[in-house]
Please model this.
Amino acid sequence: MTHHYADRLANAIEHKRTAAVVGIDPVLERLPAPFAPQRRTAEHAARCVEGFAREVIRVVAPRVPALKINSAFFEAMHEHGVAAFYRLIRFARECGLLVISDIKRGDIGSTAALYARGHIADPPFEDISASCVPDAVTLAGYLGKNAVIPFVEQASASGRGVYVLVRPSDPGADVVHDFGGERPFYLHMAELVREWGAAPQLVGERGFSCVGAVVAPKDSASTAALRDFLPHTPLLVPGYGAQGGTAAACRACFARGAGGAVVNASRSVIYAFEKPEYREQFGDDWLACIDAACAGFAEDIASLL
Amino acid sequence: MTHHYADRLANAIEHKRTAAVVGIDPVLERLPAPFAPQRRTAEHAARCVEGFAREVIRVVAPRVPALKINSAFFEAMHEHGVAAFYRLIRFARECGLLVISDIKRGDIGSTAALYARGHIADPPFEDISASCVPDAVTLAGYLGKNAVIPFVEQASASGRGVYVLVRPSDPGADVVHDFGGERPFYLHMAELVREWGAAPQLVGERGFSCVGAVVAPKDSASTAALRDFLPHTPLLVPGYGAQGGTAAACRACFARGAGGAVVNASRSVIYAFEKPEYREQFGDDWLACIDAACAGFAEDIASLL
Model:
């Protein structure tokens, strides 16, 4: 796998005709009846979560180019969850999806190298297949270049990518990212991310770097300014759906063309079976609810291309 | 375990007469001969790392009040490493050490709740013992209050604590933390951390909150100013030893008394057997090298109390 991440992503977006990414954030308390846990063990809980996630992946795979899977929801079950996490990455890739591993790791350089080994490098172990390695990871860049470069080196060597947090979706993060007045902190992070991904050997044929940014859409003027400021940076756009974002709010992220952004929705898709509008139509067929929600999401985002 | 974290830590510091914390950052390539890996599997690698770490923990336990264990070095071996990580937390606690789990997690609120379940809450699973839960974790607070509060709620309810990154040790992090000119970003983070830990029910008998801060010593004037600014915040001080910090540089962190700070050293202790000064004295007895380095470190930090 040496084809550039951003090119592979752009191809997948063209193939699926949408830039929608489904996020796998499964919590035990919200699993549908067939996967509701029967025992209070982490091992069993991990199996329930994995079984549910596999069904979700199977049903959304034909509709979207990529999947985002969040480590937190698996770490809750310690090693049992972590084993399921890597099996799911492999399964999603086997289903033809690109996989973004949402880990938001960020530590000093010597430690970042070890995180990179576990999460983005070709595994140096015979009992871990490269098919368990995601196509991209999310990172926290707040510890500076040394926290990010070990990932970038491994990613660029293997056709993989990274997305560094620049403007998170949670409004509670604004107190940090709007710090600094006229030139706020998120612009400073954007400048660093631009710099970390600027080397020509990091940029693919379509003009996008393997160093991307997580950019939640806020007001469209500032989103457009950020998009302009990061011409070669692929964006991962959170906040759609359960977090209140709309396709219209994401439009400014697509100003640089189809390969330049993907929009993630997690809870609004994978828990669609909780919503009256889907239940009325599909009853207890929870997978049909998810499929319909995914179809609507994919179509909504397709309108941005 | 409902006794307040900061009080338990202060008691442990008094009992061991030092505020030195040993950091467990084991990389496969640097393990001493008895634990050098014989096969290229993650399962075997995790056993080697765990075996080494257990010996280190056993030898340092009588000398220091607490241990810091960094998740990155175990995640590199996927679920095998993660299982070892939790067994080591348990083992260190059985050896009478307080354990700080260095995870630096930070994500939006709904996700942070799941990270908290895996890393600081009493486990809701019958097959995970509360003895695998550390006494404190490190956090990245850059996604704001919602990223931290789920941890604080779980920690305060169970006599555990958190340390939020305020001023990391890596000089490469300065480009982020010195941002903003006269009132730099790290002071902004310090203000947030102070606020998150200020509620009276979060403060223990000794006057310290269960919400601490990671504060690397830079110039002593700014360190002293930060210590003053955070009167109720226990500090975790990185950067000593391999990263170049000295006890003198850490002195300003102790201005609020013995319970107010701990100093971590990782590589300078656990890889002491690589250094000529210890090899000359102890030859191939790598554990004696570690013991001697730990004794020196503990004594050096004891001078600050």
Chain B has a mean pLDDT of 96. The first helix of chain B runs from residue 5 to 16. Chain B has one domain: 5-302.
